[in-house]
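Support reply, case 0932

Customer input (verbatim):
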Amino acid sequence: MLKIPDALLNKYQTLLDSQIPPQNHHLYIKWLRYYLDFCKKYEHPYLSTDSLILFIDKLKEKKQ
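Our regenerated output:
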């Protein structure tokens, strides 16, 4: 799995700290890694809303 860039992880961690219970942070980070892996594999820009929609569609296709 890809390493999350430090700048992105720091921003994401700040968001998690403000909205998500600490015991669940690892789950959100895991799914961020899955999303980034998907974007790299299929050459989608990870900042695009369209990429997120495609990722969700792929999960539905795989029944996840």
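We compared this against your earlier run and they match. Two observations from our side: The chain has a mean pLDDT of 94. The helical segments are 6-19, 25-41, 49-61. Please reopen the case if you see a mismatch on your end.
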